[in-house]
């Protein structure tokens, strides 16, 4: 080893010592080194001093009263209620969006634009295809493996076709849409009453997480978000509450 | 203890972490709020065998980074020379009052990468392994960043006369 590499190792050992990362034997070695080398001892003392300064500067935060908004972020989601945390958050978002504070969640989010665009596309596509009796999809749900492989490949980001059986929806199948950001996958589901919902997935080329957005178009409602590389829109003709439940189910299934 | 209570117990530490990470109390609390909401949203994927704090720090830090990217805010990294030449001289009687301010200010001068590593290790006392997971980089990288960050901090604080090694005249 060169001298320079040696110095590097020594330096790292000193940091590891100062941060309590070493075994007792290693500690003894470093202490021996510090006894021989005042410069090493000075460094360790200096880092200790930095730690004290940092704590002096920021430990005061620990004693500050917790701001209302933060306590509120956790409130109202206690166990007895059947409202899931996710649903409560969705409800909070809705209140914000429709309660005159609209746009608060959109502060500075460029990803939000993309997500809103996807929601609009989902609403448009649902309007066009959901009424198709015979050709609502290109690939039927009975060929799920092929459908998933094909759409995943075209969208460019892996995802699992969500199974919404528990929500009462059977997979009709899917098709490819031409989206603003490239190909988008549209999956269509149908319940026993023939009511259809669509899930549209796209990879906008960013890796981020957005809050939930809700858009309406006539009687249709779409719920959109981006989680990682995948942006998602769920669209259908239903009230907000069941849409939230459905969107939550889709979110969970995609999350795996 | 249920998940909500566990989260609640972490709020003070999350606020400290966010404050040190951003240097901006309002922005810090916005981040904590986003982080808590996200934690509630993702509670079902939290692995209880892993430390909750590290999981929360990971989310908060990622929210912070994506916020920085979104706003196109590039942190101006000033050098030690800027400090010395520009605004270096501090009168001795001001030293005590400035001790706290100057450590925040020194943090501000670090690049985001150096800043987060020194905050996680030096303030929050996370293990190298946890820090490696939180930042998604190998332990070796953590150590070299830490080493540089501490050296920069030393110089910045020294120029402000708070290390006891050199007094500003």
Task: Show the helix and strand layout.
The complex is a heterodimer of chains A (256) and B (169).
Chain A: H1 3-18, H2 24-36, H3 38-58, H4 60-63, H5 68-74, H6 85-98, H7 110-129, E1 139-140, H8 144-155, E2 170-179, E3 182-190, E4 196-202, E5 208-209, E6 213-217, E7 220-228, E8 230-236, H9 240-255
Helix pairs in contact in A: 1-3, 2-3, 6-9
Chain B: H1 3-22, H2 25-41, H3 52-70, H4 80-87, H5 95-109, H6 112-123, H7 128-135, H8 139-159
Tell me briefly what this model is:
The complex is a heterodimer of chains A (256) and B (169). Chain A is of the alpha+beta class and 256 residues long. Chain A has 9 helices and 8 strands.
How would you describe this structure in keywords?
heterodimer; A: 256 residues; alpha+beta; Phosphorylase Kinase, domain 1; 8-stranded antiparallel sheet; 8 strands; 48% helix; B: 169 residues; mainly alpha; Rna Polymerase Sigma Factor, Chain: A; Arc Repressor Mutant, subunit A; 2 domains; 8 helices; 71% helix; 0% strand; globular; disordered C terminus
**Radius of gyration computed on alpha carbons of chain B:** 18 Å
Biggest interface found: A-B, 45 and 53 residues
How many beta-strand runs of chain A? 8
Number of helices of chain B: 8
Oligomer: heterodimer
Please report the total strand number of chain B as a whole number: 0
Mean pLDDT of chain B: 80
Order of helices and strands of chain B: HHHHHHHH
Structural class of chain A: alpha+beta
- Report the β-strand fraction of chain A as a percent range: 15-25%
**CATH level-two architecture of the largest domain in chain A:** 2-Layer Sandwich
Mean pLDDT of chain A: 82
Helix segment count of chain A?
Answer: 9
Q: Which fold does the CATH topology of the largest domain in chain B refer to?
A: Arc Repressor Mutant, subunit A
**CATH H level of the largest domain in chain A: which superfamily?**
MucB/RseB, C-terminal domain
Q: Low-confidence segments of chain A, ≥5 residues, pLDDT <50? A: 76-83, 98-109
Q: What is the gyration radius of chain A calculated from CA atoms?
A: 27 Å
């Amino acid at each position: 080893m060169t001298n320079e590499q040696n110095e590097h190792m020594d330096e790292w050992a000193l940091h590891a010592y100062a941060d309590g990362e070493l075994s007792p034997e290693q500690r003894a070695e470093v202490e021996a080194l510090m006894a021989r080398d005042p410069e090493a001892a000075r460094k360790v003392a200096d880092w200790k001093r930095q730690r004290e300064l940092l704590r002096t500067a920021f430990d005061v935060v620990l004693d500050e009263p917790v701001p209302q908004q933060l306590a509120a972020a956790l409130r109202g989601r206690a166990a007895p209620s059947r409202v899931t945390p996710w649903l409560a958050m969705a409800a909070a978002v809705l209140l914000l969006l429709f309660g005159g504070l609209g746009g608060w969640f959109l502060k500075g989010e460029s990803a939000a634009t993309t997500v809103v665009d996807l929601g609009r596309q989902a609403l448009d596509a649902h309007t066009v295809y959901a009424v198709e009796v015979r050709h609502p999809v290109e690939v039927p749900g009975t060929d799920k493996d092929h459908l998933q492989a094909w759409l995943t490949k075209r969208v460019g980001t892996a995802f699992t076709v969500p199974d919404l059986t528990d929500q009462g929806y059977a997979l009709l199948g899917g098709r490819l849409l031409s989206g603003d950001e490239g190909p988008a996958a549209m999956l269509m589901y149908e319940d026993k009453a023939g009511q259809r919902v669509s899930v549209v997935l796209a990879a906008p080329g960013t890796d981020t997480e957005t809050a939930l957005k809700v858009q309406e178009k006539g009687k249709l409602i779409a719920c959109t978000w981006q989680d990682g590389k995948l942006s998602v829109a769920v669209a259908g003709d239903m009230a907000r509450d069941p849409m939230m439940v459905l969107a939550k189910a889709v979110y969970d299934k995609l999350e795996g | 203890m249920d998940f909500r209570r566990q989260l609640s117990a972490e709020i003070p530490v999350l606020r400290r972490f966010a404050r040190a990470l951003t240097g901006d109390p309002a922005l810090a609390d916005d981040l904590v709020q986003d982080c808590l909401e996200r934690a509630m949203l993702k509670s079902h994927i939290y692995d209880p065998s892993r430390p909750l704090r590290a999981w929360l720090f990971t989310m908060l830090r990622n929210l912070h980074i994506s916020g920085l990217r979104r706003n196109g805010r590039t942190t101006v990294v000033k050098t030690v020379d800027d400090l010395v030449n520009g605004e270096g001289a501090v009168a001795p009687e001001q030293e005590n009052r400035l001790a706290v301010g100057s450590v925040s200010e020194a943090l501000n001068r670090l690049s985001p990468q150096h800043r987060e590593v020194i905050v996680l290790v030096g303030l929050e006392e996370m293990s190298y392994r946890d820090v490696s997971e939180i930042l998604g980089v190998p332990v070796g990288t953590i150590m070299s960043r830490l080493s540089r960050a501490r050296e920069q901090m030393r110089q910045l604080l020294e120029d402000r006369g708070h290390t006891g090694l050199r007094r500003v005249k």
